[in-house]
């Protein structure tokens, strides 16, 4: 595995950091490891709050691995591929602790899903967002419930339909995806640390109860997101999508 996922807990703050040399894209094995690491952090007695971040400054997460996408030739492989972000989103949803996402760069596709599934998301001014799935013949089905829950149906539809257009961090802030945006990485890091420290000494029982309130009505997501993965798994095998992917590769 080219990428890495690490976890470090200090003074009640559990920091989970992921990295992949291809703009922090997420192959299936990395997604599985990230979901497992989030689950572990949620069950770790010493951690009171979770900070989710990635390395580098240009990209927070470029979404699922394109190399794996183009290699899909059957439904089961497609379902497994698209289930990766379902596992991560459900792990974030079910973790009994608040998750702060620190989005230091651009987020695409599944990266927007991660930013949306966090309980509180802080971002750098360069953290533009794009749901690019329709541009390659599929759709943001798996991450859709998390994004729609965060920013509403109208803005989710706008992002999904205008799949080749970046929306800047100001748009994401106004949409409710980001809680705050900072002009320097130093400010972003400092404010993330400040909030994490405050939450690390807050009442853990109250925070767990509050998180359940925030996520009320999502108990069906364990099955819903897998059903959505099946939708994408079918679409990726179509001639239309295969041709769209071929054109996308030719431009890359």
Can you give a write-up of this model?
With 252 residues, the protein is α/β, with parallel strands linked by helices. The chain has a single domain, classed as 2-enoyl-CoA Hydratase, Chain A, domain 1 (Alpha-Beta Complex). Helices cover 51% and strands 16% of the residues. The protein contains eleven helices and nine strands. It has a six-stranded mixed beta sheet, sandwiched between helices. Helix 1 packs parallel to helix 3 and helix 3 packs antiparallel against helix 10. The two termini are 23 Å apart. The mean pLDDT is 95.
First and last CA, distance: 23 Å
Order of helices and strands: EEHEEHHEEHEEHHHEHHHH
For the largest sheet, list the strands in their spatial order.
1-2-3-5-7-9
- The CATH homologous superfamily is named 2-enoyl-CoA Hydratase, Chain A, domain 1
What is the makeup of the main sheet? 6 strands, mixed
Overall pLDDT metric: 95
Q: Which fold name is given in CATH as the topology?
A: 2-enoyl-CoA Hydratase, Chain A, domain 1
pLDDT < 50 runs, ≥5 residues: none
Any idea of the CATH class? Alpha Beta
Number of separate helices:
11
Give the number of DSSP strands.
9
Structural class of the secondary elements? Answer: alpha/beta
Q: Please give the share of residues in helix.
A: 40-55%
Radius of gyration equals 17 Å
Examine the secondary-structure arrangement and name the CATH architecture: Alpha-Beta Complex
Shape: globular
Tell me what portion of residues adopts beta-strand conformation: 15-25%
């Amino acid at each position: 595995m080219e990428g890495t996922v690490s976890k470090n807990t200090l003074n009640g703050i559990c920091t989970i950091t992921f990295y992949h040399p291809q703009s922090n894209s997420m192959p299936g094995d990395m997604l599985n490891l990230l979901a497992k690491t989030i689950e572990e952090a949620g069950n770790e007695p010493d951690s009171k709050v979770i900070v989710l971040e990635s390395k580098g400054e240009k990209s927070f997460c470029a979404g699922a691995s394109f190399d794996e996408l183009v290699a899909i030739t059957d439904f089961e492989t497609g379902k497994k591929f698209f289930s990766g972000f379902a596992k991560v989103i459900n792990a974030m949803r079910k973790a009994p602790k608040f998750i702060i996402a620190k989005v230091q760069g651009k987020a695409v596709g599944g990266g927007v899903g991660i930013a949306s599934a966090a309980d509180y998301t802080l971002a750098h001014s360069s953290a533009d967002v794009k749901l690019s799935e329709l541009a390659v013949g599929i759709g943001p089905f798996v991450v859709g419930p998390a994004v729609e829950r965060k920013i509403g149906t109208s803005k989710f539809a706008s992002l999904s339909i205008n799949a080749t257009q970046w929306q800047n961090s100001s748009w994401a802030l106004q949409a409710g995806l980001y809680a705050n945006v900072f002009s320097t990485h130093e400010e972003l890091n400092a404010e993330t640390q400040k909030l994490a420290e405050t939450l690390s000494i807050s009442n853990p029982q109250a925070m767990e109860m509050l998180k359940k309130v925030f996520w009320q009505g999502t108990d069906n997501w364990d099955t819903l997101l897998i059903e959505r993965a099946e939708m994408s798994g079918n679409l990726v095998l179509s001639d239309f999508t295969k041709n769209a992917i071929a054109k996308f590769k030719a431009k890359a």
